[in-house]
Design a protein that fits this description.
This protein is α+β, with helices and mostly antiparallel strands. It is built from 5 helices and 5 strands. Strands 3-4-5 form a 3-stranded mixed beta sheet, with helices on one face. A two-stranded antiparallel sheet has the order 1-2. Helix 5 links the parallel strand 4 and strand 5 (about 170-180).
Amino acid sequence: MNAPLGVVNRVLLALCGLALLAAGVALLSASWPFGGRHAPLLSAAARRAHWHAEGWWWWAVAAGLALCVLLALWWLLSQLRRPRLAAVLVDTGDGAFAVLRGKALEEAVAAEADALEGVARCRVALLGRRGAPHLRVALELEPHAVPADTLAALAGPVLEHARTSAGLPGLRAEARLEVTKHRARRVA
């Protein structure tokens, strides 16, 4: 999770917590803004003054609610989005650094994993920070593939090659294996 999104999450959580706490205390105490347990929330005078007489009141309430819905949708979509790493810094050995595009590393790992025995398709995403990247690898296996062998080949030569070519001391990886759907063969 990136830092600005973490700050937004903490602020939203704190505001929601404070609002729920205030609402809970008001409801449990049955005091302000309530007139007691059996009193209506809005008096007849307040309903006439604000809800019926003012034409702008409903538009203001609708605009406020629409703004709340849009902000909630933005927050939800930002939670679901996983930012990919755009580049990785590679130490060239002479004190300088080169920039390796994240997409290039993803494509190289995917091409090498696609060439493994029993792999039908491979998708790779480079996530994390420039200093601590990690890979998310989704392998779609052929029906005849042995998952343990495929995982060992991925963890061994494929990731080791990615580590050495990117000049990283360590490159964590998360692999998700799935078998392709296939039709059963008929036996006659």
